[in-house]
Each structure stands twice: as C-alpha cells, then as structure tokens.
Design brief:
27% strand, five-stranded mixed sheet, 240 residues, single chain
Length: 240
C-alpha cells in the first residue's frame, strides 16, 4: 500500500507574498497522481482562515478530481464543524474528528489535535486502538512530542506530550507517527517511536532557528509505502 501524506495547504488568504496555495496544491496532486498512490491523507490545516468555506470547497473539488480515495484530518487552522460538513465527516460527541481504518494488514489511525489537546474520550479510544493493533500507523496534525524544531516546539506544540509518552510510548511496540504542522521535513526516532514530519504544500519554514523564517517556497509531500509491518518513506518536492 502506498499513501501520499499532504499537509498544511493553507488555502485562501495568504499571509505570505508570492505563495499561490491553490497552484501549489494542484502541482502536488499532479505529482501524487503519477506515483501509484492507493490513499491520500490530508493531515490538517486545509485553510488559512478557519471559517473560509470557499477554501474548503476548493480543497474538496481538487481532491475529488485527483482520483485516489482520501482521508481528511483537522489542524489548528481548521474548523471541525465546517470541515465535517464540507467533507461529510461524522464528528464524535466531543466535536473531534478521529477514526480508524484497517487497510492491507495495517491499522491506520487518524487523530484530531486541532485544539492541541485530546479529550479524555479521544485518549481512551486511542489507547484501546493502539493496544489492539499489531502495526499501528498514527496520523496527527501536531507532532505529539517535541521534534527538535525550536520555534515550533516552543510556541505551537501539542500540549499533552507527557500524556502521549506515558500512555503510548510505555507500550512494548514501535509506533509510527506521521504529522505535519511544522512546515518542515524531519525524522525523529526513539526507543519505540518513529516520527515523520511532512513538508507543507504551502511553504517550508527554516526549522533550525528560534525565530520564524521561510526556508523554501517549494511545496512538498510525503510518500509512505507500507507492507504489513514494513515501512519505507520518502519526501518529494515539486517545482513552483
């Protein structure tokens, strides 16, 4: 199974001159369509302004036209109510949008970190899902633990990283986590954690300093090949 992870589209009003988010998304999806992808996972921040209904509609139109099935997850820029309505999702009673899909021998787990925290219900659901899994592949907008990106770890982190460590990383299995949010490509590995940060469709930040700086305007995405418990992943960038 081959998955294309795309993240941080930020469609709509752009705060960055010279960035055409719609054109970037189209070029990324054109590249995805030539890679034999079985599933597209959109890991959050589809829009820049959370109430921009037109931007959500544009995202759905482009994803529908691309071909492969897709799953959409919320990020901190997204409105879960509007996202759910446009993409016909079923939020839980907490308002969160999270789900699980067994596919080709792998357990794909899609989480909602749009509030930078999980509700108790989502935590309980996640722990049960991971415990029951032989090969958990977790998709989440925020990196659930610090990723060594100073500015983002400091100012826009997932706020329950200690909970993630105590609840999930205490288990005797390797958990593969795919996230976005940081607008940078990176791999972070621990004793039983493999965490892969996806570059953004919108633009890339320079992840080395503690001030916000643009590193590149090239859009990118992550290609993920899963064969049971075997994983291979790489990043692709497209020219503007």
């Amino acid at each position: 199974m081959t998955i294309a992870q795309i993240s941080d589209l930020h469609l709509g009003r752009s705060p960055y001159p010279g960035v055409d988010a719609q054109a970037n998304l189209q070029k990324v999806l054109e590249d995805v369509s030539g890679q034999g992808v079985d599933l597209i996972v959109v890991s959050g921040d589809l829009v820049q302004d959370e109430n921009d209904e037109g931007a959500y509609v544009a995202a759905r139109e482009r994803l529908d036209a691309c071909g492969p099935p897709y799953r959409v997850m919320p990020g901190n820029h997204d409105d879960c109510v509007l996202l759910s309505r446009i993409f016909e999702l079923a939020p839980h009673s907490t308002g969160e949008v999270y789900s699980h899909e067994p596919r080709d021998g792998a357990d794909l787990i899609f989480l909602d970190s749009s509030r930078a925290v999980f509700s108790p219900a989502q935590w309980d659901w996640l722990v049960k899902r991971v415990r029951a899994s032989h090969a958990p592949y977790v998709f989440i907008h925020h990196p659930p633990v610090p990723a060594g990106v100073p500015l983002m770890d400091r100012d826009w982190p997932f706020l329950e990283d200690a909970e993630f460590r105590s609840r999930l990383l205490s288990m005797k299995m390797t958990i593969s986590v795919f996230c976005g949010h940081y607008h940078t490509e990176k791999t972070v590995q621990g004793e039983n954690l493999d965490m892969f940060l996806c570059p953004a469709v919108n633009l890339q930040f320079d992840g080395t300093g503690d001030e916000l700086q643009i590193g590149s305007l090239r859009p990118g995405w992550r290609k993920i090949d899963i064969d049971g418990e075997r994983l291979a992943t790489s990043v692709r960038y497209v020219e503007r």
